[in-house]
Design brief:
four-stranded mixed beta sheet; disordered N terminus; outer membrane lipoprotein receptor (LolB), chain A; alpha+beta
């Protein structure tokens, strides 16, 4: 009899847990920004101080975005809020900004933290991709520091990773040779510490973008020049949330997609490279990686 009671209790616990996972839902709004610092020699590039200031302001706005993370205890969707303002990539005078990758509001990242996999729907250069792969485990170190973000008590976590360091903004003028441009783009490796703040008050091991794996929802991330901060949270909204995995697009894994984008970036940079024989200052371009 005792064994039967124990089995019934365990069965009820499993059912209750499953119901809770299905019923618990939330929507978190995140603001992102990326520091931009471009130093130029006006003599060699032909870029005036006024044009440089306008360019910096344009870059700043380009990297200020708003995302919504809709989640339950097992899965989530991360999507940029659509903006009515389209980025202006031309500034006149032969100056042009080239955007590489990224489809803005049409991109959707689905994560299943229970099965440790993701499906990333991306519109890159007019082509739809569906990147399917396993979620890489992050070796978080739980720190003792705490702070409040809004009404939530948050705890600090960090991890280190090796990253390739490229010029985030690469510029070219007609006075530079192809060999000089290629030499400037040679990557260097550096160790970077990523800091996140999570709250156990929201018991999901999820967060914005590809940050997850902590005992609570991640509300803030500092990763190099990228900052992500949660500005609003709604738990169990009145209207039920549907979290559907994206299915459309050319299916590839992350490694294959990265290789395709690297090839496309090189093609685009070659396309916008100033033509041989042009005068210094005739043309100027900045290429932004996605």
């Amino acid at each position: 009899m005792t064994t039967i009671i124990r089995v019934l209790v365990l069965a009820l616990v499993v059912v209750f847990s499953t119901v809770n996972a299905q019923d618990f839902q939330g929507i978190a709004t995140y603001k992102t920004q990326r520091k931009v610092d471009i130093k130029m020699d006006s003599t060699s590039t032909g870029v005036s101080k006024d044009m440089h200031a306008k360019m910096m302001e344009m870059m700043k706005k380009q990297f200020q975005k708003t995302y919504k993370l809709t989640f339950n205890k097992e899965a989530s969707l991360y999507k940029e809020e659509e903006s009515l303002d389209k980025p202006n990539t031309g500034m006149g005078g032969g100056f042009q900004v080239v955007m590489v990758g990224g489809g803005g509001g049409s991109d959707v990242l689905y994560k299943n933290t229970k099965d440790q996999r993701y499906a990333d729907h991306k519109d890159a250069m007019g082509k739809i991709f569906l990147i399917k792969d396993a979620i890489e485990k992050i070796d978080w170190k739980l720190e003792s520091d705490t702070k409040h973000i809004g009404e939530y008590q948050c705890y600090k976590a960090t991890y280190t990773k090796q990253v390739e360091v490229f010029d985030e903004m690469s510029y070219s003028s007609s006075s530079k040779t192809k060999d000089e441009d290629e030499k400037e783009k040679e990557p260097k490796m550096e160790e970077r510490t990523v800091t996140a703040w999570y709250t156990p008050q929201i018991p999901v091991n999820n967060g914005p973008a590809m940050y997850q794996g902590l005992p609570g929802l991640i509300l803030e991330v500092h990763d190099g020049k990228l900052t992500i901060i949660c500005s609003k949270i709604v738990i169990n909204p009145e209207e039920k949330i549907e979290i559907k995995e994206p299915t459309k697009g050319k299916e590839v894994n992350q490694k294959k997609y990265d290789a395709i984008m690297e090839k496309k970036e090189k093609e685009m940079m070659e396309r916008y490279r100033p033509k041989k024989g042009g005068r210094d200052g005739d043309s100027f371009s900045i290429t932004i990686g996605g």
